[in-house]
């Protein structure tokens, strides 16, 4: 069961088609396993269609967003069972192989990475797969920009709690953490970064000039 979700504004941007391709992929992977967020997006899609039909009559006010969110919260919750994962996920279609068989490159300590930014031409953000070995710790770091992450396999914990498979994480320059992989399998994530991370450890911060 997913416990960490995109916020309402992010789901609204996804429904409106305003997110970049890699960030929309993170949302889509989460939605495939989260009936709660699927229900909210379905409601947003329906409301968007109604608003488009009535566009000449719609006047936008400062309270429009709050009213829209209230309508979503009042909508019946989708209690349908979680759909089975597709045989070929959109990520596997993109990569052409299973995530465990990728040519991972060791970065720091227990962390390996694979940059797949070139899979998204004309995108300004960096798109990277990250693998943290079971029981391993990532270096303490913060962010120079926004980072959107979805957990593809395994789980990790930090000061904000435990994040399991298909959970959604959104971080920015105000967040500092040191993820630790929990459980018996490697933790693999897909992250979209608007700027490089910034290492904050006593010694690892010396490596910041070499971190992309």
From TrEMBL:
Record's Pfam families? Answer: Cupin_7
Tell me the ranges covered by the ChrR-like cupin domain, including all copies.
98-190
Q: Which organism does this record belong to?
A: Marinobacter persicus
Question: What InterPro entries does this protein map onto?
Answer: Anti-sigma_ChrR (IPR012807), Anti_sigma_zinc_sf (IPR041916), ChrR-like_cupin_dom (IPR025979), RmlC-like_jellyroll (IPR014710), RmlC_Cupin_sf (IPR011051)
Out of the domains of life, which is the source? Bacteria
Task: Supply the name of the protein.
Answer: ChrR-like anti-ECFsigma factor
């Amino acid at each position: 069961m997913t416990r960490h979700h995109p916020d309402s504004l992010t789901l609204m941007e996804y429904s409106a088609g305003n997110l970049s391709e890699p960030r929309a992929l993170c949302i889509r992977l989460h939605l495939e396993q989260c009936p709660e967020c699927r229900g909210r997006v379905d409601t947003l899609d329906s409301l968007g269609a109604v608003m488009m039909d009535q566009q000449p009559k719609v006047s936008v006010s400062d309270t429009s967003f709050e009213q829209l969110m209230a309508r979503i919260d009042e909508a019946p919750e989708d209690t349908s069972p979680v759909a089975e994962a597709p045989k070929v996920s959109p990520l596997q279609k993109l990569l052409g192989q299973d995530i465990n068989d990728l040519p991972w490159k060791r970065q720091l300590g227990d962390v390996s990475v694979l940059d797949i930014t070139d899979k998204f031409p004309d995108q300004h953000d960096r798109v990277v797969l990250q693998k943290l070995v079971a029981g391993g710790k990532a270096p303490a770091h913060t962010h120079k920009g926004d980072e959107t992450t979805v957990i593809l396999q395994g789980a990790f914990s930090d000061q904000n709690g435990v994040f399991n498979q298909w959970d959604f994480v959104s971080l920015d320059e105000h967040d500092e953490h040191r993820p630790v992989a929990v459980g018996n399998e490697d933790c693999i994530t897909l992250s979209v970064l608007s700027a490089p991370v910034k290492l904050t450890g006593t010694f690892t911060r010396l490596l910041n000039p070499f971190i992309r």
